[in-house]
Amino acid sequence: MEQITISNIKIDVVRKDIKNIHLAVYPPTGRVRIAAPIKTNEDAIRLFAVSKLGWIKRNQRKFEGQERISQREYKQRESHYFQGRRFLLNVIEKEATPKVVLKNKKFIDLHVRPETPISKRHEIMTEWYRVQLKNQIPSIISKWEKILKVQVAEWRVQQMKTKWGSCNIEKKRIWINLELAKKPEHCLEYIIVHEMVHLLERHHNDKFLYYMDTHLPNWRQLKTELNKLPVSHADWIY
Predict the structure, then answer these.
(1) How far is CA 30 from CA 60, 130, 187, 222, in A?
(2) What is the rounded CA–CA span in Å between residue 59 and residue 32?
(3) β-strands 22-26, 31-37: how paired?
(4) What DSSP assignment string belongs to 138-178?
(5) Which has the closest alpha carbon to 121: 102, 94, 101, 99?
(6) What sign results for the dihedral spanned by CA atoms 77, 234, 232, 190?
(7) Which domains does the chain have, with CATH numbers?
(8) Residue 158, phi then psi, degrees to nearest 5
(9) What tens digit of pLDDT does each residue of 102-159 get?
(10) What's the pLDDT tens digit per position in 167-221?
(11) Which of 10, 49, 140, 198 is at a distance of 20 to 30 A from 130, taking alpha carbons?
């Protein structure tokens, strides 16, 4: 990927079939990206970045204090998030088929065999999150297919390292980040709507914003809320 450095800040540059230069600072790490028209020369991009340097630094500072979740050890009374709420893990060791049970509004029971390693506990929890998220998604897609008058041919859940979701416009397929199982359902809905709007408009241009503003007027607040929520120890952005 093309990259420039301005005042010790590395900026990714992506060239697209667009009319204007667009700048974004992504949580949680404050990564900076400029999307520029294909024929824009590097000097013009650098001048644009310099003119926005104050804005870039202000937005990067916002993410510095964001709560980070350390790597999970899947031990007793460890904090885990599900649908935007914090739960305490209750580890139950016994010779039986491993499973995860949402016990009440405070605890998640993790049933594992004695001496089960952290990697296996992680695998069991991850699969539980996947099942829960897959149960949430169909009704949201169905609702918004009617509103947006589009059709999603296929959707999938995947552990993604770079974004909350993505859309393959030609195949009408959307991908949803598994981490959204840990976030409030209205944040999940925002990401699904965002990806489905791409079936109406490929680029993040005025037309795209018009669709978002029309159909989900509070999407900016939802985006802000999602980006302020605790993030996992992995460094990935949207």
Answers:
(1) 5, 28, 20, 19
(2) 10
(3) antiparallel
(4) HHHHHHHHHHHT----EEEEE--SS-SEEEETTTTEEEEEG
(5) 99
(6) negative
(7) 2-64 (no CATH), 118-228 (3.30.2010.10)
(8) -150, 145
(9) 988 899 999 999 999 999 999 999 999 999 999 999 999 999 999 999 999 999 999 8
(10) 999 999 999 999 999 999 999 999 999 999 999 999 889 999 999 999 999 999 9
(11) 198
Q: Which of 170, 216, 179, 221 is nearest to 194 (CA)?
A: 216
Beta bridge partners of 100: 110
The amino acid at 8:
N
Among 22, 47, 49, smallest CA distance to 36 is for 22
Ordered DSSP codes for 23-82: EEEETTTTEEEEEEETT--HHHHHHHHHHTHHHHHHHHHHHHT--BPPPP---TT-EEEE
d(CA 183, CA 211): 24
Left if phi > 0, otherwise alpha if psi is -120 to 50, otherwise beta: which for 102? beta
Q: Which helix (H) or strand (E) holds 121?
A: helix 118-148
DSSP 8-class letter at 211: H
Prediction pTM value = 0.75
Read off the tokens for 103. 């016990």
Q: Indicate the helix (H) or strand (E) that contains 92.
A: strand 85-93
